[in-house]
């Protein structure tokens, strides 16, 4: 069984995206992609699926796109001929998936370079440990009282000031 083709042509990309979104959400169809035309700001949305689903998707997409901007045209082709695929699946169609070529003859070049890079990564481990120790020391400095700066003070930054051993109720913190 051949699939039907649905085409919605809108003015502006926002209307085309709205049409595509609504079409795909409203029926069991596949979005082939969109195509920008040259001039006029026209954007063509292409969908495919069963004829009933494509009809419903095109109707819903047109309604949604009309709320955003103008719909230039719409068309449902029930069983497009196989030679129409060159018109439907063009290089200008954005979102069209291309088949990847498989590589079978893979060779590794510069094995020495790879081992050198592995050694360099190992050398960087010591540097990372030194940086981690510096960060830990910086965190410890944040754990002292920021009011008096005394490392013996049990108060930590952000806690109540009355926990500071140098705090006086009348005068505040005595730093001198």
Automatic annotation (TrEMBL):
SUPFAM superfamilies: CcmK-like. GO terms for cellular component: bacterial microcompartment. Pfam families: BMC. CDD domains: BMC_CcmK_like (cd07045). It is found in: Bacterial microcompartment. Residues 4-89 form the BMC domain. Residues 111-141 form a coiled coil. Keywords: Bacterial microcompartment, Coiled coil. Its main location: other. Belongs to the bacterial microcompartments protein family. This is BMC domain-containing protein. It comes from Thermohalobacter berrensis.
